[in-house]
User: Which sequence fits this backbone?
């Protein structure tokens, strides 16, 4: 491994937000505590086919996960000890509305009120994501994101939460990575609700976009002081194919992966000229939707992990199917086989900035899982993760020099957790978790951040 370039996080200045991120389903466990209803991820992870196989690679569920519903104070103390000033976590909709809509569950809301208070007491700013994939199962049973009614239920939920916590929470994020909700959930079926259908894809795409637009105004009305953002998985694709067809494939992939989730929110419509596949959204559009889609956002959250490969496909309207690249490209790979390409983060930030629509851009996730991480004599040595952060943060610094208004970075993740359909094998944390005992051990990457950010955590001698 080459030596990473020197990087001093204090060079980002005192106004830069340094945070770590998690998501409710990946850490909380306690699936029925305090009146919680089931989510589509509870259903998905417990699903068995006729051979007894589950959709999760290692057959695990998140019934316990990192037990953070009960251990949130310990986790927030870790955020502080690592020197981070912000903690991005998500709220589980079925804890607030167990049946998706209808009566609000006070006990669920009280839990998050305690989490917010614990953050503030620790001197950590809570950054709250309203939707990180755990749709109430009751809504899925009524059509989920394929149904327009879910958009209105989302607005009711967002209004209730922002109204209740807005006295202490400033930063809100409406959605986490619509790409995965829409494509992994409705096209590839790799994620909940596990559908594989083009009509489901088009409906979900439009309804999640609509919920972002209408939801932004619902949060603004409920909490006029709110700083509202939403997060997007941004993958600048790499096209391949003979001659100019590589470019056609790359542009089609960019339209489907990135532009289709942002441009409708900015009043630019769906990029169907570049990707005619997206004409499939038309049956779900209604007359006033252009106005409803317009999102009232104070910042955009950019989440970057890798650049997807986009080979040309000679199918009209569908010129590429993006996929993760492999070892043949010569880049180092994470344990999930994702190519490590730091300059893709710079490209993602330039792209987000190119619309001129955002005064603030925040990297709301970035991180990597590496194999073979173990606790040895109280230490977890993860030099590749430190190298990963140094290289990606150098891209953020360079983007700022180019004038991109990036003013925050959130590492994914605070701690190892339930990586959706990949189970517990991929470890993304700055803190190692022994899933049998729930013991947390700060990794060397966590100590690296603590050393840079003035955290109190120090490695054992
Ligand atoms: O774990 C996920 C997270 O929930 C959303 N962004 C990508 C992460 C790593 O796959």
Assistant:
């Amino acid at each position: 491994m080459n030596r990473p370039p020197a990087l001093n996080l204090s060079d980002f200045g005192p106004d830069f937000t340094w945070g770590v991120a998690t998501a409710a389903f990946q850490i909380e466990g306690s699936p029925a505590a305090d009146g919680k209803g089931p989510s589509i991820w509870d259903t998905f992870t417990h699903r068995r086919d006729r051979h007894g196989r589950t959709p999760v690679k290692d057959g695990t569920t998140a019934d316990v996960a990192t037990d953070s519903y009960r251990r949130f104070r310990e986790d927030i103390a870790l955020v502080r000890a690592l020197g981070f000033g912000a903690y991005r976590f998500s709220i589980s909709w079925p804890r607030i509305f167990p049946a998706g809509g209808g009566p609000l569950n006070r006990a669920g809301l009280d839990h998050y009120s305690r989490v917010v208070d614990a953050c503030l007491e620790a001197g950590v700013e809570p950054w709250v994501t309203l939707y990180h994939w755990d749709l109430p199962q009751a809504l899925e049973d009524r059509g989920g994101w394929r149904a327009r009614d879910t958009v209105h239920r989302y607005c009711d939920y967002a209004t209730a939460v922002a109204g209740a916590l807005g006295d202490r929470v400033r930063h809100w994020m409406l959605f986490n990575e619509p790409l995965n909700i829409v494509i992994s959930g409705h096209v590839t079926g790799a994620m909940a609700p596990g559908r594989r259908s083009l009509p489901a894809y088009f409906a979900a795409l439009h309804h999640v976009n609509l919920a972002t637009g209408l939801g932004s105004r619902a949060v603004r009305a409920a909490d006029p002081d709110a700083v509202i953002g939403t997060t997007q998985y941004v993958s600048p694709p790499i096209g391949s194919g003979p001659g100019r067809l590589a470019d056609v494939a790359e542009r089609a992939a960019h339209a489907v992966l990135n532009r289709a989730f942002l441009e409708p929110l900015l009043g630019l419509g769906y990029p169907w000229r570049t990707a005619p596949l997206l004409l499939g959204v038309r049956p779900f559009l209604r007359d006033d939707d252009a106005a409803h889609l317009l999102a009232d956002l104070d910042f955009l959250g950019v989440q970057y992990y890798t650049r997807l490969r986009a080979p040309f496909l000679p199918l009209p309207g569908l010129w590429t199917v993006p996929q993760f690249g492999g070892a043949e490209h010569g880049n180092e790979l994470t344990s999930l086989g994702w190519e490590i390409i730091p300059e893709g983060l710079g490209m993602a930030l330039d792209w987000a900035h190119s619309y001129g629509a955002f005064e603030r851009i925040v990297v709301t996730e970035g991180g990597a899982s590496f194999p073979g991480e173990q606790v040895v004599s109280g230490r977890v040595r993860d030099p590749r993760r430190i190298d990963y952060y140094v290289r990606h943060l150098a891209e953020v610094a360079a983007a700022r020099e180019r004038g991109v208004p990036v003013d925050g970075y959130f590492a994914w993740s605070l701690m190892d957790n339930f990586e959706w359909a990949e189970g517990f094998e991929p470890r993304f944390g700055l803190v190692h978790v022994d899933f049998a005992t729930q013991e947390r051990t700060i990794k060397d990457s966590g100590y690296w951040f603590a050393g840079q950010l003035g955290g109190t955590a120090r490695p054992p001698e």
